[in-house]
Amino acid sequence: MSDKIRSEDVFGLARFYRFQWEEAQNGYVLLFPEGMVKLNGGAGEVVKRLDGAKTVGQIVDELKQAFPDALEIENDIYAMLELAHDKYWIERKTNA
After folding, report:
1. Which of 21, 41, 72, 85 is the Cys-Cys partner for 2 at CB 3.0 to 4.6 Å?
2. Partners of 12 in beta bridges
3. Residue 3 falls within a domain, yes or no?
4. What is the pTM of this model?
């Protein structure tokens, strides 16, 4: 189980994972040697911002601006990051 995700944490994709738009899936996917994970629209928006430099707080701010009508977006972002971290799709780059 992951440590609690904080706004100052920075994440990037874990080794062996590649993020891309997959036309056949009509959505974003995570590719890895054993297969593929199709991400829903919201998850794709979060993962595409995990560049290993932006903090979780910066990503939350970006997404709040991009989707101002999305209620509870901050909770959804944290839940997505916790799920992705627990499944080893992403890894913490810094722990400020």
Report:
1. 85
2. 51, 91
3. no
4. 0.89
Show the domain range for 68.
10-93
**4 within a domain of the structure (yes/no):** no
d(CA 35, CA 50): 21
How much is the pLDDT for 59?
98
Q: In what order do the strands lie in the sheet with 27-32?
A: 18-22, 27-32, 35-38
Comparing CA positions, the residue from 48, 37, 54 lying closest to residue 13 is 48
Domains in the chain, number = 1
Burial of 11 per CB tally in 10 Å (0-12, 13-18, 19+): buried
CATH at residue 61:
1.10.10.1150
Is 43 contained in some domain? yes
Q: For the chain, 96 residues long, give each residue's pLDDT as a single digit of tens.
A: 457 999 999 999 999 999 999 999 999 999 999 999 999 989 999 999 999 999 999 999 999 999 999 988 999 999 999 999 999 999 999 654
Helix 73-86 and helix 56-66, axial crossing angle in degrees, nearest 10? 130
